[in-house]
Amino acid sequence: MAFTIPDQGEGDSNLQSVCYQEDFDILVAGISGSDCVLSGCAVTGGTDMTPAVAKGAVLSNGTLFAIAAADVTIGTADGTNPRIDLIVVNSSGALAVRAGTAAASPKPPVRTANDVVLYQVFVPASTTQITQARCIDKRVFRTQGPIVIAKQSTNVTFTNNTSVQEYFVVTIPNGLLLSGRRLRCAAYGTFTNTSGSTMGLTPSIQYGNSTIWTDGSAAALQVSDAVAWVVYFELIAQANATQIIGGQVRISESGTVTTGTGPLDTAELGGTPIYGTLSIDSDAANQDVKVRWTMSGANATLTCRGATLELL
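Above: the chain's sequence. Below: its structure in C-alpha cell form.
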C-alpha cells in the first residue's frame, strides 16, 4: 500500500478517516522528493505497544538513508482520551515516534523538520496494544524517477598515489535496487600530470565491493599534462541478484582544461564503453556503488569535482 485516508468504518475509529492538515504536509514533502519513501518501511501491528517497521530506504531532506527492520515503542495510552501518534524516520535516519496529545477529538502532532512519516497510529484510551487496524499507512513513495538520491559537490582529490582510490561512494539500501529498477550515475573531474612523462589511468566501477567494470587497457587512457574526464553509466537490476552496467568514460585531449574551452576530438567523441555484469543479492544487505580511479605513477593529481546518482 501507500499513503491512504480510510473511509469511515474501515479503521479502528472514525477519527482515522479525518483529513488533517498534517496529511497535506506529508503529501507535499513526499511528492517534492524532499522527505519520501523509496522502498519498504511497512508497519505491522500486534498484541502490544511495539509495532514492527520493515527494512526500507527513505530520503530525508534529500539525503538517502537505509532503514533496518526494528520495533518502535508507542507511549502509554491516556486513561481517558484517545491519541494520534506518528511513526517517522527523522532527519538523522533513525526511527522515531512523534506522540500526539490525548483529547476527545485528537489530531496528529506536527512533524519535526524533515521527518519522513511512515504511519499514523491511533491510540485508544487505556489500550495496551497497537493492532494493525490502528496503523494507517502514510508513506509517500517515489517509485518513478528520475530522483536524485546522492550528490557530491565538493572536490575529492588524491595526489601522488598509485593505489586504487574511491572518488564517489554511495550506500544503496538493501531492498532498493530490485528487479526492474536502475541507477544512473554521472561523475566528472580533472587530471593533472606533472611527472613529465605519460601516465596510465585506470577507471573502475564497483557494486557491493565487487568490480562490475574496469578498463583493461590503461595505455588507452595515457595522458601527458592536464585533461578533463567524465564517467557516465546506468546500473540496472535485471533481477534481485542480477545486475548489468552500461555507459561510457570520456577523457579530453591533452592540454589545459582551466579555461573551459578546447577542441572536440575523437577521444571525446568516442570514449571508452562501459559494460559488465554481476550477481549480487541486492535484497540481502546494503551495497555500495563506487567510482574509482588508479594512477600508474606519482607526481599527478586526480580530482572528482562533482557527481550525481539518480534512481530511475
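Residues 210 and 278 are 8 Å apart (CA to CA).
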